[in-house]
Amino acid sequence: MHTALLAVAPLVYKYRLEGRVWREILGGRAVVEECFAGGVGALVGAWIGAVPIPLGMFSLFSLILRIRIVFFEGVG
């Protein structure tokens, strides 16, 4: 959410709250300039950077689960 706020803040500063401009921005039809490209880059970078996080956690979790099943299944 913080990245979304950082990406949108320059757009709000530049375009204010004009409905026509925001419809173009959200529809992907806005003119590509520094402000718009920076916002898109921030959001895309955040999503691309967040993809490996659950994948890494899942492999660690599955490793711990396998160790638990193999070594502690007969206990208790």
In short:
The chain is an all-alpha fold and 76 residues long. 80% of the residues lie in helices and 0% in strands.
Commentary on this structure:
- With 76 residues, the chain is mainly α.
- It has one domain.
- Helix content is 80%, strand content 0%.
- The protein is built from four helices and no strands.
- The protein has helices at 2-15, 19-27, 34-50, 52-72.
- The longest helix has 21 residues, at 52-72.
- The protein is rod-shaped, with a radius of gyration of 22 Å.
- 0% of the residues are buried.
- The mean pLDDT is 75.
Which terms would index this structure?
76 residues, rod-shaped
Order of helices and strands: HHHH
Per DSSP, the total helix count is: 4
| Beta-strand percent range | under 5%
Described by the principal axes of the CA atoms, the overall outline is rod-shaped
User: How large, in whole angstroms, is the Cα Rg?
Assistant: 22 Å
Structure class: mainly alpha
Mean pLDDT: 75
In whole angstroms, the N-to-C terminal distance is: 45 Å
Sheet with the most strands, sense and barrel status: none
Low-confidence stretches: none
Helix content: over 70%
Q: How many β-strand stretches?
A: 0
Number of domains: 1
